Structures are given as structure tokens and as C-alpha cells.
């Protein structure tokens, strides 16, 4: 069975960093990109960025420029998302989600985020 | 303020057909595929529609997606009480070089 299992809840002080892990199982880790999406309480979904576990290439939403780092350890099929300089507005549930892609001549083809982690609650509070 | 615009709420009675709209621009919906996600309270989203109108295996054919120009729609036919959830559209935005979501639509089954 395909699973993404995320690390547990975190409580951080403003200005600190948090690193969330996302352990993949049941599929070939390097064949699917990992996206990170967050959701503040009662709010909508906010896309943060993506990572190609095969190449290590990443991309992120402009609002997280300089604050987000996405990495992976292919030997343990785990992706990580680190967010620094935390502020209260970063309090949210953070999800990882895989997305199948195919390399095309004019760019990659994507098929939607079809498997999601259970979410990690990150609370930023002094 | 979301880049993709959805109505905050929608409703219907069991058996009815309901549509949820998603409005964008040339840089996102107009030039890229649209995806739809369903989310129940306290749970992770679930992929409902990919590449405008494709259903992943296991998604009932009561759910369908369409796109025209810079707008997209999710239609749910034969509405059931278990369809009561939040629905989000998403697309890649070329100007932002990133993925964008709609603000979400809360569907109530009366």
C-alpha cells in the first residue's frame, strides 16, 4: 500500500525553524514529485513548493523565498521541508503529497497530487 | 485573496446536480491544466479530477470536470449526503511559476 507518513506535531517560538519529514512507502520514491501544501485553521489550501526526489530539484512559491528548504534522503525514501524565521502566521497543518509526472519533450506532464500525508500541525507561539 | 476564484459556498438536495466554478486568468487556467480536490474536515485533501476532466481510479463518475478559456467547473451529479465537503481547484500559474489553489467551496447537501 502506498503511504506518506509525516512527523509529529511541533511547537516553535517565533524566529525558530521547523523541519517536517515525509516518509514514503509502497512505491518508487524517485518516480513522483513531492509537493508541500499548508492549511491554516479554517482557511484554504496554500501550495508551498515541490521537489523532484530523483534530481533533488526544487521550486517554491514566491512568498516563501529565502525561508523554505526542501530536501530528501533517497536511501530512506524520506522528503523534508524546513521553514525558517517562523512567525505566528505560519501556524498551520503542513501536508506532503506525491504527484506523478512524465518527462515530455516540451516539459513535464503532471497527474495531480494523488497521495497525501496525514498532515503535521506546526504551532508558532511565544 | 486567492489567485483562483471559487464561490465560498454551494448547496443542493440529494439527487440534484451541482456545479462549482473556478475562475482564473490566461497565466493559470487559460494555459494550464486544472485539478480538483475534495476535503473533509480534519482530513487530508483527496484528488478528484486531474488534467481538467480526468478521474483517478476509484472516483465515481458522478464527478466530472470541464474547462473553457480561463474558467473551470466541477460538476457533481446525483448528489449524496457524503459529498458534503470542501472543494478546491488548482492550476499552475506561469506568471508566479508556482501552483495556485482556489479559496475553496463548502458544499452543503440539504
What does this structure look like?
- The complex is a heterodimer of chains A (about 130) and B (about 110).
- In chain A, about 0% of the residues lie in helices and about 55% in strands.
- Chain A contains no helices and 11 strands.
- In chain A, the strands form 2 sheets. In chain A, strands 2, 4, 5, 6, 9, 10 and 11 form a 7-stranded mixed sheet that branches. Chain A has a 4-stranded antiparallel sheet with strand order 1-3-8-7, with no helix packed on it.
- The model of chain A has no long low-confidence stretch (mean pLDDT about 95).
- Chain B is about 0% helix and about 45% strand.
- In chain B, strands 1, 3, 4, 7, 8 and 9 form a 6-stranded mixed sheet that branches. A 3-stranded antiparallel sheet of chain B has the order 2-6-5, with no helix packed on it.
- In chain B, a hairpin with a 4-residue loop joins strand 7 (about 85-95) and strand 8 (about 100).
- Chains A and B meet through strand 5 and strand 10 of A and strand 3, strand 4, strand 7 and strand 8 of B.
